[in-house]
Design brief:
- Strand 1 (about 50) and strand 2 (about 55-60) form a beta hairpin.
- The longest helix has 21 residues, at about 25-45.
- Helix 1 (about 10-20) packs across helix 2.
- The chain has helices at about 10-20, 25-45, 90-95; strands spanning about 50, 55-60, 65-70, 75-80, 80-90.
- The strands form two sheets. Strands 1-2-5 form a three-stranded antiparallel β-sheet. A two-stranded antiparallel sheet has the order 3-4.
- The two termini are about 25 Å apart.
- The chain has two domains: about 10-45; about 50-103, HU Protein, Chain A.
- With about 100 residues, it is an alpha+beta fold.
């Protein structure tokens, strides 16, 4: 039997910003949304986002290919596309591996 790991949601992040900064919830929402929106806009433009001590976001090109429809087995052309890619920093990897399960 597998146990489901807890998930940190956007609402949790907003609540944490609200708690730490003692700002109103609406202001905390604006902060979190602005960060996410700016990351998305930079990726859409093809820019790389680097957050020291955390990691970097960028896009990678995925080639087009021929796939199969799982229901019918028919061949389907899958067009080339860009996918978001996150590379964690060494510091983040070290934090995760030395966490000892504590928060």
């Amino acid at each position: 039997m597998t146990t489901k790991l807890p998930t940190l949601t956007k609402a949790d992040l907003i609540a944490e910003v609200e708690r730490i900064t003692e700002l109103k919830r609406t202001d905390s929402e604006i902060i979190v949304e602005t960060i996410f929106d700016n990351i998305i806009q930079a990726l859409q433009k093809g820019d790389k986002i680097e957050i020291r001590g955390f990691g970097s976001f960028r896009t990678r090109d995925r080639r087009g290919r021929v796939g199969r429809n799982p229901k019918t087995g028919a061949k389907v052309e899958v067009p080339p596309k860009k996918i978001p890619f996150f590379k964690p920093s060494k510091e983040l990897k070290d934090f995760v591996n030395n966490s000892n399960g504590a928060s």
